[in-house]
Amino acid sequence: MKTTSRNTLRPDWRHVAPALLACAAALSAPAAQADVIDFEQIVSHSSQADSSVYLGGDTFSTNGFLAEVADSDYVQSFPDYEPGLAGATVAESEYTCTRLACPPPLSQYYAGLNDGSLTLSRGDASAFRVSALSFGAIAPRDANELLPFGQLRITGTRLDGSTLTAATDFPALYDWSEWTLNSTFAATVFTRITIDACTYTAASECLNGEDMLNLSQFALDDVHVSAVPEPSTVVLLTAGLLLVAARRLGGRA
């Protein structure tokens, strides 16, 4: 009777290992090349005559993302609320910050005004991560340049609807700063992010609206994001690579 050696049935890991390593490398590789939301090319969905100015409720598209402009929650709670000026784009060729202390426009950027916020979500509704952004403060001309004026805040909404928030102090007026988000925030997958600002009170509270009405404003540029693949894509990739490994193992048996 013909017998089969145990060595014949035992996988030869010298041949299987390269395939498994290739599988692991593919799964650990970035899902897609990182993108930057730079606000250079904007398609406004606003009905305003000036397409660079946005009221609460206006939207625009840029770099594959949908941007939603909103007034502060405090203002929207007013019984007689009407949308007000909440954002604008500031271009290098037409410097529009004539009544405010703004960072210089090295390129076109987004300005969040009068306590307004900006929510960014992918145009194809897929999830994404965010790792860094450039920002600056926008303040009244008579603001004290030596004091921290307030904070920039970013709130991400996870796939399950829960949120994660991070905040950092603004740089000195007229300056830009690069904010690299902490590892926890940068590794989290979001469906959308909302960016706004708060202003310090004399008691060192950071408020948006209320006693600091229309003072929380920010400049935003170069938001670094990366796409996240759909779960089905990961499953298919895993199955395909494991099949390749199995066939290679079978061919060596």
From TrEMBL:
The keyword Signal applies. It comes from Pseudoduganella lutea. Residues 1-34 form the signal peptide. The lineage of its organism: Bacteria, Pseudomonadati, Pseudomonadota, Betaproteobacteria, Burkholderiales. Residues 227-248 form the Ice-binding protein C-terminal domain. NCBIfam families: PEP_CTERM, PEP_CTERM_QFxxD. Keywords: Signal. Pfam families: PEP-CTERM. The keyword Signal applies. InterPro entries: Ice-binding_C. This is PEP-CTERM sorting domain-containing protein.
